[in-house]
Specification:
Blueprint (H helix, E strand, L loop, with lengths): L16 E4 L31 H8 L16 H6 L5 H12 L5 H20 L3 H7 L2 H16 L3 E20 L2 E17 L5 E21 L8 E8 L1
């Protein structure tokens, strides 16, 4: 996620994504498409039937592709989320040029799902899910933190309340890699307990606001439609 509008975060949108969603959208059939006009399949009526001439004339009118319709602007959805002429708009257009199925709104939807999955997978020490959603470098950092936590006998109690706001703030093509950066403001409850059950970080009863800036990447040459998290940064 040619695929349709999952994800395809992760961005990585990964096995699930995103996992879609982190996938980009591919045009899939919905089953509601109109069948192409076939001038030879129209029912023929007897010349003696009332209105036969008018009906025949109507049945034989074929609208040629493109007539009476303005060609769709491929950057229309991009211009809705980023002002034309800005670096963000230019970056998104460059990605669209390499990935015709890319849609910023669909990407952001997938990235938000990937964000929640990554946050909760880290809290639950779910390395398998993290492996699918993160680049090798980011995964190594997450895995090292999990190893350290487990060596200390610590556990994390976490509840994801929801995302208050999310925006695409940067985009670019770097060689064959498409990179999109999002800023997420979320609400969650998190507390770290030591091996004796004592809280050593966070508060199990307090909802806190978390601000993150995450960058997702996808290799446009690869058949893999998933986006993966390649960089993280927290805002105070």
């Amino acid at each position: 996620m040619e695929g349709s509008n999952l994800v395809t975060l992760i961005f990585v949108v990964a096995a699930v994504f995103v996992f879609l969603q982190l996938r980009s959208v591919l045009g899939k059939r919905t089953g509601n498409e109109r069948r192409p006009s076939d001038p030879y399949s129209a029912k023929r009526e007897s010349p003696t039937d009332s209105g036969a001439d008018a009906s025949a004339e109507s049945d034989n009118v074929i609208t040629l592709p493109g007539r009476g319709e303005a060609k769709a602007d491929p950057y229309r959805e991009i211009d809705r989320v980023a002002k034309p002429g800005t670096d963000l708009n230019s970056g998104l257009r460059a990605i669209k040029d390499r990935m015709p199925d890319f849609d910023p709104a669909t990407f952001l939807s997938g990235a938000k799902m990937a964000y929640e999955m990554i946050v909760m997978s880290f809290a639950d020490a779910d390395r398998k899910t993290l492996k699918n959603l993160l680049s090798n470098e980011v995964y190594d950092g997450f895995a090292a933190a999990l190893d350290d936590r487990e060596a200390k006998g610590e556990t994390v109690q976490s509840s994801f309340i929801g995302i208050d706001k999310s925006d695409i703030i940067a985009a670019e093509m770097r060689d064959t890699d498409a990179l999109v950066t999002i800023r997420v403001v979320s609400q969650m409850i998190s507390a770290t307990r030591d091996k004796d059950g004592n809280v050593v970080d966070g508060d199990p009863d307090a909802v806190v606001e978390v601000k993150d800036v995450w960058t997702f990447s996808r290799d446009t040459r690869s058949r893999d439609p998933n986006w993966r998290l390649v960089a993280t940064e927290s805002e105070d």
